[in-house]
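Project standup — Tuesday

K.O.: blocked on the structure for the chain from last sprint. Re-posting the sequence here as requested.
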Amino acid sequence: MKEPLVLVPGIDGTGLLFYRQVPLLERRYAVTTTRLRDDARTMDELVADLHRSVAAASDGPVTLLGESFGGALALSYAVAHPERIGRLVILNSFAHFGSPARLWLGYHLLRATPWGMMRLVRQLNGRRMHSPGTDPEEIRRFLQLMQTTTREGYLSRLHILRGYDIREQLAAIQAPVLFLAADRDVLVPSVEQAQLMTSLTPRARMRVLEGHGHSCLIAPDLDLSA
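H.V.: unblocked you, prediction finished:
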């Protein structure tokens, strides 16, 4: 019987960006993908939602794989429900968001930007956000999938991050944790944050993903099952 694995999406909240990884992971795991609801106002609400997904996936401990915002949620879940965690894999995430001003600015810019322009914004940021080896066809698919995101969901999760800081709670996580950090991440200081979280988490180790950007899930040479 395959080990249960629950995938926790990033700030897009869709879970759709795991599409390249799911077939690879399914060789070893019973994979469950999750979608974050767009009207949550606190991390505790999302932890409660994730708890229901974990319960549906397995009666016992699971492996949680969280990407970016999903890593923050997975860590928060592990603190709240340690008995349900077998292992954690945290990709391009953080223990706290170090620039409140940047969060505030991002929140208000998103509120002011016509939602129809978001595809253009993502296209313009594509070279910076994606791993250099990502095929243009994969990026086109990424842009198509991101059309299912909502302004409400982004604003909700940016609001939640303004109060997020788990640094003092990481010592309570007793499950094995693997922190993965892309060295070309321009959105989050992933390597710096992974080093910090590894130092604060008892059974943690980290691996640098060389040559990868923040949106590395669709990169052709990334296999999270390895």
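K.O.: great, moving the ticket to review. The first strand starts at residue 3 and ends at 8. The two ends are 19 Å apart (CA to CA).
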